[in-house]
Amino acid sequence: MLTSLTAPNVTGAGMPTGDQAGNAASQIHNQLNPDDFIKLYLAQMMHQDPMHPMDNSQILQQMAEVSSLSATKEMEKTMYQVQAGIESALAQAQVEGASGLIGKRVEIAGDKAPLIDKRGMEGAVAAPAGATNITVTIKDKNGDTVTTIDLGSNTKGGVMAFKWDGKVKDKDGKEKTYDPDIYTISASATVKGVSKAVDTAGAFQVNSVAMNPSFDPSDPKSSAVLVTVDGQDAPIGMGDIFKIID
Predict the structure, then answer these.
(1) What is the CATH number of domain 102-244?
(2) CA angle at residue 177 from 112 to 199, to 5 degrees?
(3) Cys-Cys crosslink for 131: which of 68, 72, 123, 127, Cβ 3.0 to 4.6 Å?
(4) Is 211 within 8 Å of 91 (Cβ atoms)?
(5) Rounded Cα–Cα distance for residues 12 and 10 (Å)
């Protein structure tokens, strides 16, 4: 006597259905490249439930999404490389252009200025409009005041140059010549009856220019070109140059 046969349950826990496989593929396809996705697709085809086959249109759609994502990432990579190349070329062009400054003197914004043998010291003050009693104070490296220079008034405002030959007369009229060195400069002015500090700049000679390896084009304060000058240990950015003298 024959007994009835029951077909085995082929949709158990060890065998994913087409919908289950499709959902799994959807969750991980963003982490796979096209080659990985094809391998996964073939493995799913080999182990799919014959009673619930996978939806080919769904798989093809997922493959198209992976291809699109891969193309987008490749485009982003290419655009980044192009941008980096352009920035490098522009920085190199700026270095070549700035090389013409080597040997020239430039005014650098700040509180330092060199006293140069047989040339003296040169600098500038950014006077505000309506300024009176504009005075430059020069101090040595010990912080002692060496001399002061009276620049008078500037009703319209603007840049005012100053010079010092490195010589100072004492109260007895005896002249003293100071040694070449880096001195500290500052300036003050009276505006509407109130005394205030004003910006200064000192004249330096440019020794060399170079590309800034840490240049960040997204930072407006970052300079593509660095300049080294006499008397300054650290290089400065082009944006710190106040004026080209000669």
Answers:
(1) 2.60.40.4070
(2) 20
(3) 127
(4) yes
(5) 6
